[in-house]
Amino acid sequence: MTITYLKKAIKAPAAEDATTRETVSRMLGEIEAGGEDVARRYAKEFDGWEQEIVMSRENLEKAIKTVPETVKDDICFARDRIRDFAQRQRDSMQEFEVELLNGLVVGQRIVPVTTAGCYVPGGRYAHAASALMSVCTAKVAGVPNVIATSPGHHQQGVNPAILYAMHLAGADQILTLGGVQGVAALAFGLFTGLPADMVVGPGNRFVAEAKRMLFGRIGIDVVAGPTESMVAADETADPAIVAADLMGQAEHGPDSPVWLVTTSREVGEKVMALAPSIIASLPELARNSATAAWRDYGEVVLVDTREEMAQVCDQYAPEHLQIQAIDPDWWLANLRNYGSLFLGEETTVAYGDKCSGPNHILPTRGAARYSGGLSASKFLKVLSYQKLNRAACKVIAPVAARISRLEGMEGHAMTADVRLDKYFPNETFDLGKTS
């Protein structure tokens, strides 16, 4: 495969930050040892928040009253799409029971975790959609206790639109805590007495590192890095649409990679020519982020065939992958590595980010090679069970005994032996050789 870079990133994605790791490790240790008082101290130190941590019904209702009805309508629209998609995911997972041989009954149960913690970022942007993506999906999965948390800011507290989204999605309790202290409160059960079995949701590098460090003790969705977006475009693509989609995603942050792979040099060069003016049209905060992201991490990759485009896409394994090329069904059938796929010019990442239904909490940094994004299944445990009668035991026990002894596990073999001795005392079985 011949690759030509019309634009090459001048920075590589950041590796693990030792300073971040050290800071998060220290904070988690302090919060676990000192509990709620330490979490409150960090809330004051980092967010200037000194008021209630557990959101009261009175204050929740007061905040919701400040949300305009048009905003509520939009959040309800998004909630319905996200809930419906999550419900179909849940419905696709089935319990079953089957008799594999006479008297050997095995089965599968689908059981939700008991408590889910949903972290909702609330820094530069009011991430109401993230509240819906995590809380609503957990409730659809059947999680009985869903605790949501988001940072408060000085006297303003949690953004009212985020609070409305959390409430609408079904959060059982809401905390006003951000950063490491927010993740720690969810994991350790601070302020609620309910330690989370799973903690999900996007956040900054400190939030991501806290989740990574706690993984194993708790479940998590993904260890998310900066948002990534890739467009695969052929000669039929509209460069103005492609450029808008890439630069629109670059506003996420100065280290958010945006990539274009194309079979058309003309499309690639036009996108590069259009990028500066699109970035310049953005508000200052978004403009600064997009400028750095495109300058430092943006790439335009030129290849010869769509098969090579698909190969490049799978190598990058992007969080978001848009296809602006003919025959979208071919791409759907052939691509393997992506967080979420957006097929056709009419389909843009922003729709998925906000309201079209599929979840926007997705794998980054190549994790799409082995993992999907947040789904109803992430909150569900697939539990197996089995039940044998004595006839089945007569068939299974000798095989289990022989394999156990083959492996040198005499204790395992003994548990089969004693059952055969009890149930079939007058029969002889080949139980393998003891070592």
Q: Your description of this structure?
A:
The structure is a single chain. The radius of gyration is 26 Å and the shape is globular. It has 435 residues and is α/β, with parallel strands linked by helices. The protein is built from 16 helices and 14 strands. It has helices spanning 18-34, 36-47, 57-65, 69-92, 128-141, 160-169, 179-188, 205-214, 239-250, 265-280, 284-297, 306-316, 328-334, 349-354, 390-406, 410-423, and strands at 4-7, 96-101, 104-112, 115-119, 145-150, 173-176, 198-200, 219-220, 229-233, 258-262, 299-302, 320-324, 340-343, 380-388. It has 3 domains: 4-14 and 226-372, 3-Layer(aba) Sandwich (Rossmann fold); 35-221 and 377-381, Nitrogenase molybdenum iron protein domain (Rossmann fold), CATH 3.40.50.1980; 390-435. The strands form 3 sheets. The chain has a 6-stranded mixed β-sheet, sandwiched between helices. A 5-stranded parallel β-sheet has the order 6-5-4-7-8, sandwiched between helices. The longest helix has 24 residues, at 69-92. 43% of the residues are buried.
